[in-house]
Amino acid sequence: xxxxxxxxxxxxxxxxxxxxxxxxxMASAVxxxxxxxxxxxxxxxxxxxxxxxxxxxxxxxxxVMGADEMAALTAALGQQPPWSDLPMLVLAxxxxxxxxxxxxxxxxxxxxxxxxxxxxxxxxxAVRTALRARRRQYEMRNLLEGLREAxxxxxxxxxxxxxxxxNPLAPLGTALALLTRKKPPAEEAVKYYELMARQVEHMVxxxxxxxxxxxxxxxxxxxxxxxxxxxxxxxxxxxxxxPLLERAGHRLDIEPAGEPLVVxxxxxxxxxxxxxxLNNAAKYTPPGGRxxxxxxxxxxxxxxxxxxTGTGLAPEMLKSIFDMFVQVSGTxxxxxxxxxxxxxxxxxxxxxxGGSVEAASEGLDRGATFTVRLPLSKSMPxxxxxARGSQDNNHASALEATVLVVDDNRDAADxxxxxxxxxxxxxxxxxxGEEALTLSRDHAVDIAVLDIxxxxxxxxxxxxxxxxxxxxxxxxxxxxxxWGQRGDRERIAAAGFDHHLLKPLNLPEFMGLL
Length: 514
What we know:
Elements: E1 13-17, H1 21-33, E2 37-40, H2 44-53, E3 57-61, H3 67-77, E4 88-92, H4 99-107, E5 111-115, H5 120-182, H6 186-217, E6 226-229, H7 230-247, E7 251-255, E8 262-265, H8 267-283, E9 290-298, E10 301-308, H9 317-320, H10 331-336, H11 342-352, E11 356-360, E12 368-375, E13 402-406, H12 410-422, E14 426-430, H13 433-442, E15 447-450, H14 459-468, E16 476-481, H15 486-494, E17 499-502, H16 507-513
Parallel strand pairs: 1-2, 1-3, 3-4, 4-5, 7-9, 13-14, 13-15, 15-16, 16-17
Antiparallel strand pairs: 6-8, 9-10, 10-12, 11-12
C-alpha cells in the first residue's frame, strides 16, 4: 500500500520502570547491548506520558505497581487503537504470588511475567519476542490504513466515473431531443450527428481505459514485442494527442535524440504510454501553455521526458500519482474530465517493458515532468515499421449479402440492421437464439452478427447450432459483444466465430471484416 510506513524509533522503544535507579541503569545497559532502544521512566506517570509518543513494549517491576499507578496505566492502555495490543513484561519478586501480579494478569491480556533473579538471556529473549509481536501489530496497522485509503479512493473513483459517464449522456440526450422536435433538414442535422459521435467516442474511451486497467492489473495483457523505433512511436503519440493540444492552444516543443533510439517492445502500447502522458500534460495545463517532449540516449537506456507549464504536483503526490484510484483535486482536472487512471496505465505498461517512470515537480502551479526510461535494444526495426498499421481510407463498396443480426437488445439489433441496410445488405433481425435459428432455416444467410450475452440460448450456443446446420461451414460468424476479456475471447473462438468485435461498433473495423 502506498501509505505503509516503517515504525519510527519512538514506536520501537522499550519503556522501562524499574524498582530502583540502579536497576534501571543495569536493565538499560543489558537492553542496549542487545541493540534494543530502552527508555527509563522515573515514574508510571512518566511512562504513561511516553506511551503517548510511542512504544514497542513495556518493562515494569512488580514493586512500582500500586493501585494508583495501575489505574493510570489501565486508562492509558484502554485508549489503544483496535490494531494495538501493547506487550507488557513484568519483573516479579521471587516467591509467593502477589496481588499486584494477579491484578495485572486480570487487567491485561498481553502480559509476560518473569521471576527474578533471571538470566540475562531470558530477559533479552522475552523482550525480543515482545517486540517481534509488536512489529506484526504495526504491519496490521499498515494493512488496515491501506485498506481504508483504498476504500476511500474507490469511493471517489466511482463518484468520478458516474460523473464522467453522465457528462457525454447529457449532450447525447439533448441532441436526440432536438432532432426529434425540430426535425431539421439533413445539412442542419449534421452538426448534431457530429456532436453525438464525439460523445459516444468519449464514452468508449472511458470504458476502454477501465478494461485496460483491469487486464493489466490482473496480468492478462500480452505484449507483441519487436524492435521499435521510438521516433515513430512519438510521432504517432503526438498525432493521437494533437486534437487535445490544439483545442487548448498549447505549444508543443519536441526535441529528438538526434540518433535512432530502438527498444524491444509493443509499438501500440508504447504509443499509448506517450499519448497518455501528452494528454495528461494538456489536461493539467491552462490554455496557451507550453508542453515539451525530449528524447535522449543515456547509458543503456532511452530516456523520454514530457514536461508542462501546468498546475504541478504537491510533494506528497509525486509517488502516489501513479496509484490506482488516486485523483488529483483542482480545477484543471474538474474542467478537463477523466477518470484519473491514465497514469496507472502508463506505469504498468512501462514496467511491462522493463522500464520505469517517475514524476517530478517544483510544486503547485509550477508544472510537472514525467520521465520514462526504457532499455535500449541492439536490433533494428524492419523497414517501414510504424506503431500503427496503415488504414484504408477508401469508401467501402455496396454490401451485397444477407446478414442476420441477433441481439436481445431490440434497439441495438434494429439500428445495426438499418445501418447494414443503408449499405446495400439484405437484413434479418432476431431478438433471441431460437428465433434466429428459425430465420436461418428459412433464409440463405451469408453473414451472422451475434450478441453473446443473451438469455436462454446465448451467442456461443447459437453459433454452434448455425455451424452445425447445412451450409454452416461457409457462414461468416461475427461476435459483437461487450465481453472482451481473454477468457471470453477464447470461449467465443471455440464456439466457431470468425471474428470478435467489441461494442460499441467500430464501423471502419466492421466494414473491413465484411
